[in-house]
Amino acid sequence: MKAPPWWRSRTVKGMGYAAPTAVFVAVFFVLPLLLVGQMSLSDWPLLAGDRGVNAPENYTDVTDSALFWPAVRFTLLYTVIVTVVLLGLALLLALLVQESRPGAGFFRTVYFLPSALGLASASLLFWGLYSPTTGPLSRVLDTLGLVDDPVSFLGSPTSALLSTVFLIVWKFAGFYMLILLVGLQRIPHEVYEAARMDGASRGQIFRSVTLPLLRPSLALTLLLCVTGSLLAFDQFFILTKGGPDNSTVTVVQLIYREAFQRLNLGTAAALSIIVLGVLLLLNALQFRGLRRADES
Predict the structure, then answer these.
(1) Which of 177, 178, 228, 211 is nearest to 293 (CA)?
(2) How would you class 87 by CB atoms within 10 Å of its CB: exposed for 0-12, middle for 13-18, buried for 19 or more?
(3) What transmembrane ranges does the database entry give (predicted)?
(4) What is the mean pLDDT of residues 42-63?
(5) Average pLDDT of the residues of the chain
(6) Could you give the residue ranges of the DSSP H alpha helices within 187-261?
C-alpha cells in the first residue's frame, strides 16, 4: 500500500492543529516576556525608551527601595490570611451544600453569585459601602448604637487589611466552593459506606476519607488562591490606594508605581521578573508536594 503524502501524515496534522495556539502563546506571552527581560537589564524610562544596558542596577535599585520589603511582608501576610480564611470557608460551604436536599441548589447559586461580579466592580461597591460619610455600614452601626462616630473601615492599616480580606472572601468563596464541590461529588459513595460499616465517626471519615480524596481539588484551589493573592492589585488600588501611610502597598502596586508614577520601566520590569520567578518556584513546590502525596 502506497504511503500517504507527507502533508497528510498525523505529525503534520497535529502540528497544524497546534500552530494557532503556539502562535498565540509566542505573540502574547513569549515575546512580551523577552521584552520585559530586556527592560529589566536596561535603563528604560517610560517616555524616553531604551538607553542601553545597565544590569544589574535595576535589580539593586528595586531591593534597595524603602517600600520593597514592607510591600513583600504585607503581600505575604495578606496571602496567608486570605488563603486560610478563603479555603476554610469554601470547604465549609461545599460540605454544607454537598448533599442533594431541598434548597441546596438555591444556596449553591447564592454562594456563587458574587463570583460573577468583576473584581474592580466589587471593589468599587465595597468602597461605597465602607465610606464613613455616605456608606450604609457606618450608618447601620450608628443606628444600632454600636458606635458613636462614623467608622473608617479603611482608616488604619489593620482595618484596611481586614476590610479588603472580607471583600475577597465575599467575592471568591463561592468560586472555590464550586471547585471543591465538584471534587466532593467525585468521591464514590461506596467509600463512605464502607467507612461507616467499619465504625468510623464523622470526624474520622472527614480526616481519613474526604480530605485525602479531595487533595487534587484542594491543590488546585490552593494554587489559584496563592497566585491570585500574591498578584493582588485591583482591590487595594481602588479601596486604599496603598494607604494609610503606604501600609497596604502590594508588590504589584509597587510595579505600577515604578512604571507609571516614577516612569521607570526598567525597575518595574526587574520587579516583574522577580515576582515571576517567585511564582514559578512556589508553583513548582506545590506540584512537587502534590506528586509526593499522591505517591505515598
Answers:
(1) 211
(2) buried
(3) 21-41, 76-97, 109-130, 160-184, 217-239, 259-282
(4) 89
(5) 88
(6) 189-197, 202-205, 211-213, 215-230, 234-239, 251-260
Indicate the DSSP class of residue 151.
Answer: -
Q: What is the DSSP letter of 155?
A: S
pLDDT in tens, 148-200: 788 889 989 999 999 999 999 999 999 999 999 999 988 888 888 888 888 88
* DSSP bridge partners of 42: 53
Candidates 18, 86, 25, 108; CA nearest to 226 is: 86
- The Cα-based distances of 35 to 40, 44, 260, 272 in angstroms read 9, 11, 17, 12
Return the sign of the alpha-carbon dihedral for residues 33, 38, 43, 49: negative
Partners of 160 in the β-ladder: none
Residue owning grid cell 509526593: 292
Residues 77-85: what's their mean pLDDT? 96
Q: Retrieve residue 69's grid coordinates.
A: 520589603
Q: Name the one residue in this structure whose C-alpha cell is 523577552.
A: 34
Separation CA 85–CA 79 (nearest Å):
10
Report which of 252, 277, 266, 231 is spatially closest to residue 36, judged by C-alpha positions. 266
Task: Please tell me the pTM assigned to this model.
Answer: 0.89
Structural contact between residues 160 and 154, judged by C-beta atoms closer than 8 angstroms: yes
φ, ψ for residue 42 (rounded to 5)?
Answer: -130, 160
Answer whether 225's CB lies under 8 Å from 88's CB: no
Cell reading at 89: 470557608
Q: At which residue does the C-alpha cell 488604619 appear?
A: 156
Report the SS3 class of residue 75.
helix
C-alpha cell at 114: 458574587
Which residue's entry shows cell 497528510?
8
Which of 119, 156, 140, 185 lies closest to 244, judged by CA? Answer: 156
Q: Tell me what pLDDT residue 40 has.
A: 93
Cell numbers standing for residue 76 = 505575604
Count of beta carbons in the 10 Å neighbourhood of residue 272: 22
Amino acid at 1: M
